[in-house]
Each structure stands twice: as C-alpha cells, then as structure tokens.
C-alpha cells in the first residue's frame, strides 16, 4: 500500500479476565497515534467481520492453566491463508513472563510451545506479563495460583493485585507491528 497511514489494522483477542483486552486497547492507541485505522474485536466475534478488508492482523491471547483459549488455534487453522497473506503478529499474556528470562517468544514456555504447535508463523510475536488479581479469583483458582506463586517466588498475599505488564514494551510492539514490511 502506498500510504501506510491509511492502513486498516485488526486486533483480535481472547481473554478470560479482561487484561488482554486492555493490552489491545493500548496497542490501538499507539497505532492510531501513527494514523492507522484500528478495529479491536473478540476472537469469538471476529467471524462476523470482513477479515479481507484489513491490511494487518494482530492476535493476542492469555494463558490459563498452561494453555491459550482453544478458540485461538481454531481461528488460526481456519484463517491461516489470510494470516499468511498479510503482515501479521501474535502475542501471549501470562504471569510467568514477569520473569525477565521468560519474557520473549523464544524463552517463554507457553509461547514457544504454542508457536510450535501451529502451522502459521507470525511475522512478529511478543510475550507480555499479565495481571494477578487474587481478590477477583474463585477460591480454588486463588489457592492454585498462590501455590504456583509460592513455587516461583511471586506474591502470595491473598489480597494482592499486581499488574506486571511492561506498558512501554506493549507500546514498542504496537509501533513494530505498524513497521512490518509486506
Ligand atoms: C485461573 C488462572 C490460571 C492461570 N494460569 C496461568 C498459568 O498457567 N501460567 C501463567 O503464566 N499465568 C497463568 N495465569 C495468569 C494469567 O495469564 C494472567 O492473569 C493474565 O493477565 C490473564 O489475562 P486475561 O485477563 O486476558 O485472561 C492464570 C490466571 C488465572 C486466573
């Protein structure tokens, strides 16, 4: 496209507690500040859109008990050709990524495993640390996550609410997505 600022970018996401949506909203802000037209949609609702009308696609998903939402791999399998035909990117959100040595697509175990398990190879990928919000979790989930945090030396106070996300890293990713050359 001759005028990159006229590009339309689609950001699709899967979330359980809403934090991935907040990351998408920040990406949208960054991309709009660069003049792009950005649509953010839940993966579950993306099928109703004319996907071919977008110049770039970004997909984001969070981890829950070791896995991304199943809809993520399903969507990729259904739209592989489309994803491969334009500059596209993927990001994963999880708590393990709060550790600097597990914060890249190559070093984060979930992202690595996921990218190996699908046939689509995104042009760009990223991993962002998510949010811990013990008070909002159900009892069993809270105890499970506290146990994982105890083992991995994270916060275990049941009242803790901690946002580990590096927003500067999110913003940098937004700029990088705009810069992927076709
Ligand atoms: C029930 C539950 C299970 C989780 N399991 C994992 C996990 O296995 N590994 C991990 O790194 N993070 C795990 N997390 C952390 C989430 O990935 C993190 O809170 C993220 O911000 C959630 O994003 P979302 O609100 O978009 O779903 C878990 C969180 C919850 C509530």
Characterise this structure.
With 182 residues, this protein is of the alpha/beta class. Helices cover 38% and strands 24% of the residues. It contains seven helices and eight strands, in the order βαβαββααβαββαβα. Strands 1, 2, 3, 4, 5 and 6 form a six-stranded mixed beta sheet that branches. The chain starts with 7 loop residues before the first strand and ends with a helix. The site of flavin mononucleotide has 21 residues, from helix 1, strand 3, strand 5, strand 7 and helix 6.
Keywords:
182 residues; alpha/beta; six-stranded mixed beta sheet; two-stranded antiparallel sheet; 8 strands; 24% strand; binds flavin mononucleotide
- Spans with pLDDT under 50 lasting ≥5 residues? none
Q: Which ligands are bound?
A: flavin mononucleotide
Q: Count up the helices.
A: 7
What structural class is derived from the secondary structure elements?
alpha/beta
The termini sit apart by: 9 Å
Binned strand content: 15-25%
Largest sheet: 6 strands, mixed
SSE blueprint and pairings:
Blueprint: E1 8-14, H1 19-33, E2 37-42, H2 43-46, E3 56-64, E4 67-68, H3 70-78, H4 80-85, E5 88-94, H5 109-117, E6 124-129, E7 131-133, H6 139-151, E8 161-163, H7 167-179
Parallel strand pairs: 1-2, 1-3, 3-5, 5-6
Antiparallel strand pairs: 3-4, 7-8
Helix pairs in contact: 1-7
Produce a short descriptive summary.
The protein is α/β, with parallel strands linked by helices and 182 residues long. The protein contains 7 helices and 8 strands. Helix content is 38%, strand content 24%.
């Amino acid at each position: 496209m001759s005028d990159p600022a006229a590009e339309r970018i689609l950001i699709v996401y899967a979330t359980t507690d809403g934090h991935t949506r907040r990351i998408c909203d920040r990406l949208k802000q960054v991309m709009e500040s660069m003049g792009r037209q950005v649509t953010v949609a839940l993966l579950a609702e993306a099928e109703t859109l004319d996907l071919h009308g977008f110049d770039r696609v970004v997909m984001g998903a969070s981890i829950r008990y070791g896995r991304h939402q199943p809809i993520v791999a399903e969507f990729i399998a259904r739209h592989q050709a489309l994803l491969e035909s334009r500059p596209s990117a993927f990001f994963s959100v999880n708590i393990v990524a709060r550790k600097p040595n597990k914060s890249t697509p190559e070093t984060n175990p979930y992202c690595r495993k996921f990218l190996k398990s699908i046939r689509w190879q995104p042009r760009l990928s990223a991993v962002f640390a998510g949010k811990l919000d013990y008070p909002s979790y159900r009892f069993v989930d809270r105890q499970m996550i506290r146990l994982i945090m105890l083992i991995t030396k994270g916060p275990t106070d049941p009242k803790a609410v901690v946002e580990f996300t590096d927003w500067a890293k999110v913003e940098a990713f937004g700029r990088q997505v705009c810069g992927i050359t076709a």
